Amino acid sequence: MAEKLTSKTHGQNGAQDAKGGSTSGEGLSVEYPSSENNTELKFLTSSPQDVAQVAVVMVPLPAQGHLNQLLHLSRLVSSYNIHVHYVGTIAHIQQAKIRAHGFDPLTTTNIHFHEFQTPSFETPLPNPNASNKFPNQLMPSFYATFHLRESVCALVRELLSKNLKKVVVIYDNLMNWVVQDLPEMPNTECYSFNSTSAFFSYSFLWELKGKPVLPGTEHYEDIPSVLDCFTTEFWEYLKIQEQFDGKIHCGELYNSSRVIESLYLDLMAKEYDGLKQWAIGPFNPLEPKEKSKDSNKRYESLDWLDKQERNSVIFVSFGTTTSLCDEEVKELAIGLEKSEQKFIWVLRDADKGDVFTSEVRKVQLPEGYEEKIQGRGIIVRDWAPQLEILAHNSTGGFMSHCGWNSCMESISFGVPIATWPMHSDQPRNSQLVTKYLKIGLTVRPWTRRDELVTSEMVENAVKTLMASPQGDEMRKRAADLSNAIKKSVTDGGVNCAEMDSFITHITR
């Protein structure tokens, strides 16, 4: 284990209606905004005194989709007047804070950020020409988190010394190594956070069992093998984490909702009979707060959307872990142009392990392309306010890699998806969207992932989603699902009950 760690850590450091400071470990309080959509959840049976005697520690994996989910969960938990301690390396805490958006900055909560120093680690550039799209460039940063083990233990010991009744640790289920010692501490409880869908989690277990005929597996017809979705390097990392799986936690959390996938949440509960689980998503605000229209910092993409017709724009973004090669960029550009539909395209390379290191590849478009699409499309080469774009009435479709963050956000705002999965859980999330929820279509089948996505494929997918009766039906189903989700977070809704149940459980 030590040899593995040493070999990996050298180098440079560095809503609208549905659409039819740092701490270095000292625990200095940092004011942070809370979610509007879950203010209705605060009807706890626990007394305020019980709540004040509990602290929550969040331990995220240092990849944007994971950092973001646990930061949003921190906002929700802290809205109950519970102090939350969000931990990580210096670079990754800064990344999480800088990229946070979608909520009112005037609302404050009890979130304390702990930026811990780790040895330097390599930050290689992503390889857009790799045969497997999995972001192997992030692996050194994953291994660097092993050095957080002692720091997190020290933080929990410090919190316990303040005569708290309990310290609750919520950790990403890919961070088992870091929290392995915590269950042995008195008055400490650990809860595993699943950053993926229950649909994916159940399919993973189903494949490990040899794909037997089980309830719910009818939706797994032609599902890709999970073995093809990751690299060898990631499987090695996962094997290390699995040494502690099932030994360190007393419950499971999902950024999901029974409105979306009750069948698979129930099936997962049966698989782990006796282990408590809560589906308390969506974590993202359902009425994201934009910067003021008078603000100099308001995003250009939102100003442009304000001028477009309802449901007329497709948002194209492949997340923070995908890099397209030059040929893919060219075909996508031509396909969007030929579709004659309006679009916002986020064109940026995947994240490095440390996003603050300077070297970044600038993806090239065909010569004169931006002039040709002027007025009908815009290119965003920096960070884009995805929540606000998806919530905007002018956005009627989303071409996406189907990362779980993006899926939950798109479903929350009633936006159907043209799925183009790249790696990890994304191919199975695509199945959930297209075959189970029926709120999307596939740009290219996963079985043809080694083939180039042509401009014709892009053109056909965009036209179908944005300008056909089939697309209109998907949009209606997505809007209905969004409305159901919004009802679930109101007083008496299923999400409200799940969140209340979890908070009551950890403060008992």
UniProtKB/TrEMBL annotation:
<dbReference type="InterPro" id="IPR035595">
    <property type="entry name" value="UDP_glycos_trans_CS"/>
</dbReference>
<dbReference type="InterPro" id="IPR002213">
    <property type="entry name" value="UDP_glucos_trans"/>
</dbReference>
<dbReference type="GO" id="GO:0035251">
    <property type="term" value="F:UDP-glucosyltransferase activity"/>
</dbReference>
<protein>
    <recommendedName>
        <fullName>Glycosyltransferase</fullName>
        <ecNumber>2.4.1.-</ecNumber>
    </recommendedName>
</protein>
<dbReference type="Pfam" id="PF26168">
    <property type="entry name" value="Glyco_transf_N"/>
</dbReference>
<keyword id="KW-0328">Glycosyltransferase</keyword>
<keyword id="KW-0808">Transferase</keyword>
<feature type="domain" description="Glycosyltransferase N-terminal">
    <location>
        <begin position="53"/>
        <end position="285"/>
    </location>
</feature>
<dbReference type="GO" id="GO:0009690">
    <property type="term" value="P:cytokinin metabolic process"/>
</dbReference>
<comment type="similarity">
    <text>Belongs to the UDP-glycosyltransferase family.</text>
</comment>
<feature type="region of interest" description="Disordered">
    <location>
        <begin position="1"/>
        <end position="34"/>
    </location>
</feature>
<dbReference type="GO" id="GO:0016138">
    <property type="term" value="P:glycoside biosynthetic process"/>
</dbReference>
<dbReference type="GO" id="GO:0050404">
    <property type="term" value="F:zeatin O-beta-D-xylosyltransferase activity"/>
</dbReference>
<dbReference type="InterPro" id="IPR058980">
    <property type="entry name" value="Glyco_transf_N"/>
</dbReference>
<dbReference type="Pfam" id="PF00201">
    <property type="entry name" value="UDPGT"/>
</dbReference>
